[in-house]
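Supplementary Methods. Inverse-folding protocol.

Structures were first reduced to a discrete structure-token string of length 101. This string, shown here, constituted the complete conditioning input.
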């Protein structure tokens, strides 16, 4: 059994505070933090993603349309959609990102 946390997990390969908590053939679990006023530009991935808001709130942009999500909200974005995030608050936005590879 392996126990992972933010201090012993590899960092994501882009310029945000994110850690890969689990990765295997079909899924990857990432903990992502967006600081106040931080954004993740809209982008498309070749896999579906499920977002769980663990703390805070922010705007999820899908194909240019913004949706406000808050703590304990969950949503799925399919691989054919551009998606991005904006933390427009004065508190950290913490997401669990489940990539369905």
């Amino acid at each position: 059994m392996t126990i992972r946390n933010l201090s012993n997990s590899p960092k994501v390969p882009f310029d945000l505070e994110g850690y890969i908590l689990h990765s295997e053939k079909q899924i990857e679990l990432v903990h992502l933090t967006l600081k106040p006023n931080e954004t993740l530009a809209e982008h498309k991935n070749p896999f579906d993603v499920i977002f769980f808001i663990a703390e805070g709130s922010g705007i999820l942009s899908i194909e240019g349309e913004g949706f406000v999500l808050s703590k304990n909200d969950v949503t799925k974005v399919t691989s054919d959609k551009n998606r991005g995030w904006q933390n427009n608050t004065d508190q950290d936005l913490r997401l669990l990102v489940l990539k369905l590879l």
